[in-house]
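Quick review question:
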């Protein structure tokens, strides 16, 4: 890469929790994983500090809510995983991410360390207030992660969600201070948008999309059933920058070259 003047961007954790940590510790549900993660990342930072400037702490960090084993190494089946356990694992990940951001900047202040989220804007199916209220209820589950990475604290909306759902996050001494180690930039993947409604059972349910949901009749779909929505990418960019005023990095959106047969992503990118 150096030979061809390619600037590397390294994702430190990309869906590859060591199997032993999943089996013996149940992944990020166990706070001990933070220490293991710190040791691993510290080693990588020191080894490549003169070759890599840009880093991501996790790939699509918010996807742990939807695929706990894939992202978080959480061996408990989804149907047996309580919201308390899941959001406690989220807390451990967020503390781990902030901690290695601090470690990285101590090793080399010039490092640029970012978070990476799966961006998925939502539209209300109608202009009724209840359908519009369903939009932030859906999106907040994703923005929680970028909010904490960029602002260094839990937003009020998730505190109310925790209260309403009987979730009590266990903070260890110093967690609040660690979370204040915010990122230098926001990166994200974008593949589709979602439609949502107060009563989703009143509408046709889409079989594609990553999270399923209500079918948006105004959008074409790919062969996988994913909504093709280039305007959604523009909305994500506007929303992220308006919210955080940090540099944005689209790190996954599909190639635009003629040699790759991926018409869906090429159409999305070219129409943006």
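Suggested answer, residue by residue:
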């Amino acid at each position: 890469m150096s030979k061809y003047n390619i600037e590397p961007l390294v994702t430190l954790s990309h869906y590859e929790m060591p199997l032993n940590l999943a089996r013996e510790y149940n992944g990020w549900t166990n706070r001990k994983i933070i220490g293991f993660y710190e040791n691993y990342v510290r080693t990588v930072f020191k080894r490549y500090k003169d070759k890599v400037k840009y880093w991501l702490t996790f790939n699509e960090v918010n996807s742990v809510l939807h695929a706990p084993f894939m992202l978080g190494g959480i061996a408990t089946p989804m149907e047996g995983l309580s919201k308390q356990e899941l959001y406690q694992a989220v807390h451990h990940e967020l503390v781990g991410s902030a901690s290695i951001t601090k470690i990285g900047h101590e090793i080399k202040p010039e490092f640029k360390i970012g978070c990476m989220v799966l961006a998925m804007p939502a539209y209300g199916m109608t202009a009724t207030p209840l359908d519009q209220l369903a939009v932030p209820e859906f999106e907040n589950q994703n923005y929680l992660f970028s909010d904490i990475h960029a602002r260094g604290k839990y937003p009020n909306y998730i505190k109310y969600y925790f209260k309403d759902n009987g979730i009590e996050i266990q903070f260890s001494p110093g967690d609040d201070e660690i979370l204040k180690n915010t990122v230098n930039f926001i990166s994200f993947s974008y593949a589709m948008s979602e439609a949502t409604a107060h009563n989703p059972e009143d509408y046709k349910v889409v079989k594609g999309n990553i999270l399923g949901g209500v079918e948006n009749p105004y959008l074409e779909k790919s062969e996988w059933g994913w909504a093709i929505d280039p305007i959604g990418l523009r909305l994500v960019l506007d929303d992220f920058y308006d919210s955080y005023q940090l540099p944005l990095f689209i790190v996954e959106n599909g190639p635009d070259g003629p040699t790759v047969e991926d018409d869906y992503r090429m159409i999305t990118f070219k129409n943006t």
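Why it works: DSSP finds nine helices and seven strands in the chain. The mean pLDDT is 93.
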